[in-house]
Amino acid sequence: MSGNERGGETFLAKVYKGWRITVYEPVREYLDLEIGDTLRVTVQKDERRARP
Questions:
Q1: What is the pLDDT of residues 9-25, one digit of tens each?
Q2: Do you know which SUPFAM superfamilies this protein is assigned to (predicted)?
């Protein structure tokens, strides 16, 4: 498989400010994604999460 791989994770996209989206192999196969495909995501902070 081509693309950037680290520890069994395939990094398919680099997004705003250098964030990376990790799509694990079973999910990638389910969504029929290939390296280089455009993936639109929405990032939302979970405000319910307890803060230390």
A1: 555 555 666 777 778 88
A2: AbrB/MazE/MraZ-like (SSF89447)
Helix/strand/coil (H/E/C) assignment for every residue in the chain: CCCEEECCEEEEEECHHHCEEEECHHHHHHHCCCCCCCCCCCCCCCCCCCCC
- Provide the 10 A C-beta neighbour count for residue 30: 10
With the CA atoms of 43, 24, 13 and 39 taken in that order, what torsion angle do they form, in degrees rounded to the nearest 10? -70
The span from the CA of 33 to the CA of 45, in Å, is 25
* Number of folded domains that form the chain: 1
User: What's the pLDDT score for residue 30?
Assistant: 92
The boundaries of the domain holding residue 28 are 1-37
